[in-house]
Here is the input.
Amino acid sequence: MPNRSGLEAMVEQPVDRGPFRRCRSARPGVLLAIVVTLLAAGCSDSDTVRVAKIGVVAPLDAGLVDFGRGIRNSVQLAVDEANERKAVKGWRFEVAAADDSSDPAKGEAAALALSTDGAVVGVVGTYNSGVAAKVAPVLKNAGIVMVSPGNTDPTLTLGADPAKPARPWDTYFRMVAADNVQGPFLAASAFDDTKARRVAVVSETKPVSRGLADSFSSAFQAKGGNVVLNRVVPDGTTDFGAVLRAIAPLRPDLVFFGGEYQVGAEFSKQAVATRISVPVMGGDGLKDNAYIAAAGPASDGDLASSVGAPLASLESAGQFLAAYQGAQYAEPPGDFGVYAYDAANVIIAAATNALKGVEAIGPAVRGRIVAGVQATDTTGASGKVAFDRFGDTQNKVLTIYRVADGAWKPLRTQTVA
Here is the structure.
């Protein structure tokens, strides 16, 4: 007789009732109905697995996808690990990833969609500061916590007036040092490490690019340096001929570019073609392997800062890197993946406490999650994870890199105030 399930055997086999075995057996259909009823009765609400979603808003389809996909994958890794250890009894975490294509309008639309999903307990994102400015107020209105692994615009936490800092959204947090710290760090590196005394400064129009360039310029001049030219170009510029022709006769020691790797690589190539043979320096938006791939040999000697210390030097990041590699994602984590991983774990930890004993996610649960994130004081893969009263990280570490032999090589890592 072929093997059959226990349920099939129960339904189809004659029942031996001992001395009563001559009594008529129950019909299979009746017995099956009894079994199903008993099984259903044993499944109470306490056995139901509910879903809590961690949203991701990042450039996944267009824009700075080299950053965005590493962010998404790292959040997925954190969620998979939480589910494996059954972080909250009766709850399972899922990732709800939405593309913003580095476009504020698309980011806002993504945030609106997530804000109407009653299962969302928090959002990791965005990478771009300009996108965050549209996403953060939407999530604030829904009471949903937002933890960014990459935003560097100081106004997102301090407001528009640095002399009178005021936190715009108490649901917004960031994992990395902002440009009011990164700009002076870059200026010190230009002045002290490369011995530059004359610099030309060019930036794209968007506020985060201009903000970093202005922060760099002020700090460089405060150290005794000379800014020989300061020029703003439209976002996404592809022809830098005019500004480079203006720079060439000024003979700067270094050219600072405020922008991201897609545009910065073209700027570097055209600078070399214009026979401006000095390094180009930029911020964390420049520091990606895509910059070297796009600029080619023109990138040799260029400099950029990035958040945190090199991952290979962090003992705390070893388990994350091994797990990420083991998951076999198509894209590398990039410099911001480890911060996305820690951001997701911060939200999961806060949600773990907020979801205990509850059956639905409502305003009270979301409020407890925001409070839990604010109270975070732990060690993650990126190092210390804690936030100040503005939502800024208390772990402000930056590294300066130089392109050599077709790769970014770290020059100096510093913890800054």
Summary: The chain has two domains: 50-176+312-386, 180-307+399-415. Confidence is low (pLDDT under 50) at residues 1-45. DSSP finds 14 helices and 14 strands in the chain. The longest strand covers residues 50-58.
